[in-house]
Structure formats: structure tokens, C-alpha cells
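Possible regression after last week's pipeline update?

I re-ran a chain I had predicted before the update to compare outputs. Posting the input and the new output here so someone can diff against the archived version. Not blocking, just want to make sure nothing changed silently.
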Amino acid sequence: MMGISAQANTIHLAIAAWEWPSYFSPEERLKGIRLDMAEYRRPDPKTAPFKSKAAGLYMICTISKHAAEAKGYSDALMLDWQGRVAEATGANVFFIKDGAIHTPIADCFLDGITRRTVIDLARARGIEVIERRIMPEEMEGFEQCFLTGSAAEVTPVSEIGPYSFVPGDITKLMIEDYMAAVQPAKEELLVAS
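New output (post-update):
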């Protein structure tokens, strides 16, 4: 059946697994990656199923990432449909100020598994995690920034457009805690295969 109404179609599923290095190079990760500000925004949550990894939602991310890379950046920061900080093109974003972690509320973008894991790891260490609306101009007051994602893992950010950050103790701690949490799982997967 071809067309929008495809309820009668059968579902075919293929799963492929391969070893995948970190999304960003080790050199980039050590000094912190650079992000450009994306031209496009995450859509209004009433326009698409934002809680899913939907291919159609990645189109604006792909265009934004390509534009950023053409300017010498590693990635781009997306704003939401109301002009607030949302996420990078394929990873969630976190900021640090005065010992607390701030991250946008995941109400129009994917609330990633890695995002949730890092929030839990931070809280287990007694680090305050504040999920809230973040306006772009607030980035000037943040000290540290990092991205999280299945491929990005925990990656420090040194720059977003005109704003600069220095990877510090909390970012490094989240990298170490995340790697400690997932490394046994990676080893177990290799043994099982």
C-alpha cells in the first residue's frame, strides 16, 4: 500500500550493530567542541511527535549541522519554536553555573536516555540539576557547557556562537561517571556477541 494511510502495511525490521567511536574526535572533546547557532528551530510540540527519534525531525538538524560544519564548527545549537535554548542537532545540552547544572525542559525535543542518565548521576553526587526554560542570552552567565547523547556521550563545549565556556570539574566528573556507568555495559555486549 502506497500513501499516507498505510495501516495495512506489514512492518519489516532490521537491526544492525557495529562498534562506533565517540561522535566527536578525542582532540575536540579534550578542549571542548564549538557550536554555531542554528538557523532553524525545533518545531512546536503540537506539530510533530517530539518524544520519538523521527527521521523527519532530523531534517532541520542535518541542515543545521552541515551549515555549522561549513563555518568550521562541530555542531549547532537549536532553539525551540519560542526562541529558547533546546538542544544541539543530535544531543541534549547542559550548562553549569555556581555548582548547579541547568538544562532545558525536554518538552519539544527528545528527552534522551543519556540525558536522563547524566541527570541521575549528577543527583546521586548531590549536584543540583535544574530543568528549566533557558533564554539564549543567559548563556553569557554560564561557566561550563556539555552535550549528552548516545553517540556524543558527555562532550564538553567550549563555544556556542559568541559565548565561551571552560570545561571544568563538574563536566569532567560527569564524563567520568558516565563512562564508569556505561563501560561495563559495552564490555558485556562484546562478550555476548
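Follow-up from reviewer: compared with the archived run. Residues 169-192 form the longest helix (24 residues). Marking as no regression found.
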